[in-house]
Amino acid sequence: MKHLFFSLIFSVLCLSIFGQGRVSGTIIDKSERTPIEFVHIEVRSVGDNQLIGGAVTDANGRFTLDNIPFGEYELRYSFIGYEKTEVVRFSVGRNAPNANLGTLELEETIHDLDELVISGQRSIYVNRIDHKVFNVDEDLMSVSGSASDLMQNIPSIEIDVDGNVSLRGSGNVLILINGRTSRLTTGADRAMALQQIPANAIERIEVITNPSARYRPDGTSGIINIVMKRERRYGFNGTWAANAGNAHRYNSNVLLNYNPGTINFFGSYDIRLDNRERYTFDNRVKINSDTELLSHIDRNVFRYERSLSHFARGGFNWDITSKSILEVDMTYSYWTVPHDGTTEDLFRDHNMTLTSENHRLRDAMRYDRDFSITAEFTHVSDNDHELTLELSIERENFLAESSFINR
After folding, report:
1. Structural contact between residues 164 and 171, judged by C-beta atoms closer than 8 angstroms
2. Cα 81 from Cα 60, distance rounded (Å)
3. Alpha-carbon Rg of the chain, whole angstroms?
4. Residue ranges per domain, the chain?
5. Residues near 82 by Cβ (< 8 Å), separated by ≥ 6?
6. How many C-beta atoms lie closer than 10 Å to residue 333's C-beta?
7. What letter does residue 229 receive in the DSSP assignment?
8. Which of 78-87, 108-117, 366-375 comes out lowest in average pLDDT?
C-alpha cells in the first residue's frame, strides 16, 4: 500500500509539471455543409513551429489528436480541391486539457474557364474486316493536292506518270464516288478526272479488296471508294483556299455549307491549272543473228501539257422525319488539256554512223464536260428494314483530236 500511494503521488506531480492534453474537431464543406474525409491535419507549436503531431479526418469529418503537451499551438488543415491551408490557434493546459475546436470549414476552389477545347486525332489508316480506310485529313496533300495525289500515299495503290490507277498490280479496278459509279471515274479519261477532284473535298478513301456482291465487282481486282465531305454543322460556314507551286501549278477552291435545321445545303467549286513537262529517253541495241552486227536505235520524246479544269458540286440533305432522308447530289466538271510534243528517232549502224532519222511533231487537244445528278431516298421502318430509292442521271461530252507532222 505504501508503494502504491507513492506511485499515485508521483503521477499527479508529473501531470502537474509535464501535462498532456487533447485537441478534436470536425471539418466540413463550407457550401455543401457536408463532412470532408481525409483532410490533412497538423499541430505545430507557436514560436519554434515544431511539428507536434498529425492526423486525417474520418468519414464523418472528425479528427482527434492525443498526448499533446500543455502549451500554445496552431492547427493547420488542408485538402486538394479546396482553398489554401487554414490555421486555427488553440492551447491546452492544466485547467483545460481538452481543446474542442468545434466545426471548421473549407471552401472549395472554383476557377472559371473561358473556353474548354477537347481535341483528338484520328489514325491515318484504319483496318477493318472487309476494307481499309484512309483518313485524308491527316495527309499534307489534302491541303493542295488532288484525289490522284492522295492515292499515291495509300499502300497497295499505284499511280503511274500518266495518272493511271492500279490496285495490287492490276489496272482493272473499280473506282466509286460515295459508293456509286460515276462517269468521272469510269469514263475514257479516268486518270485526268482523278487529277481534277480537289483533295480537300474528300473525307476519306476506302480500299475494298474483298468486295461483297452488292458492288458487282466481277472481274475486278478490288474497289476504291472516294467518300466526299458532307458538312453538317448548324448555321452558315465555309472555307476558301488557294495554292501555288512550281512549274506554273495553281489551284483555288471554296466550300460552303448552310444548315438551318432539318435541311442542309452544301456546295463547292475548284479551279486548277496544271502544266506538266515530260521527257522520255529510250536507247536500244539490236543484234543481227545472221551477220552478228549491232545497230543502235535512240528515241527521244518530249511532251508538254497545259491542263485547266473546273469542278463544282452542290446539293442538299433533308431529314424529312427521323427515319426518312432525301439526299440530292450534283456534280459538274469541265477541263481542257491542250498538249504538244516531239518524237525523235535516230538509227545508227554498228560503226555508230547515222543511217536515218525521223522527226514527228504532235499538236493535240482534249476536253471533257461531265454533269451528273443523283437523288436518293432512304426510309428505315420500325423493324429496322431499310428501303432505298435512287435516281441517277449523267451526261458527258468528250473530244480528243490530234494532228501530226512527220519529217
Report:
1. yes
2. 18
3. 41
4. 9-106, 125-228, 235-406
5. 36, 106, 107, 108, 109
6. 23
7. P
8. 108-117
Q: Report the phi/psi class of residue 215: left, alpha or beta, with left for phi > 0 and alpha for psi in -120 to 50.
A: alpha
Question: N- to C-terminal Cα distance for the chain?
Answer: 142
Task: Compute the distance between CA of residue 150 and CA of residue 203 in angstroms, rounded to an integer.
Answer: 11
**CATH homologous superfamily, domain 9-106:** Immunoglobulins (2.60.40.10)
In degrees, rounded to 5, the angle at the alpha carbon of residue 252 between the alpha carbons of residues 336 and 234 is 125
Which of 300, 286, 311 minimizes the C-alpha distance to 359?
300
Hey, what's the torsion of the CAs at 12, 15, 16, 20, to 10 degrees?
-160
Which DSSP category does 180 fall into? B
Backbone region of residue 193 per phi and psi (left: phi > 0; alpha: psi in -120 to 50; beta: other values): alpha
Query: Phi, psi at residue 79, to the nearest 5°?
Result: -155, 145
Which residues contact residue 25 at a Cβ distance below 8 angstroms, ignoring those fewer than 6 apart?
Answer: 62, 63, 75, 100, 101, 102, 103, 104
- Give the Cα separation of 50 and 398 in Å (integer): 94
Query: What is the CB neighbour count within 10 angstroms for residue 311?
Result: 24
- Say how far apart CA 205 and CA 198 lie, in whole Å: 13
Nearest one of 66, 74, 77, 65 to 29, comparing CA atoms: 77
Q: Check whether 180 has a pLDDT greater than 80.
A: no
User: Which stretch of DSSP H or E encloses residue 324?
Assistant: strand 324-348
Classify residue 185 as left (phi > 0), alpha (psi -120 to 50) or beta: alpha
Buried b or exposed e, range 263-286, using 16+ CB within 10 angstroms = ebbbbbbbbbebbbeeeeeeeeee
pLDDT digits (tens, 9 = 90+) for 258-294: 988 888 898 889 888 888 888 889 999 988 888 878 8
Pick among 3.30.70.20, 2.170.130.10, 3.40.50.410, 2.60.40.1240: CATH of 125-228 = 2.170.130.10
pTM of the model: 0.55
DSSP states of 261-322: SSEEEEEEEEEEEEEEEEEEEEEEEEE-TTT--EEEEEEEEEEEEEEEEEEEEEEEEEESSS
Please tell me the distance from the alpha carbon of residue 264 to that of residue 316, in angstroms, as a whole number: 5
**Sheet strands (E) in 162-262:** 165-167, 174-177, 202-208, 223-228, 235-245, 249-259
Collapsing DSSP to helix, strand or coil, 355 comes out as strand
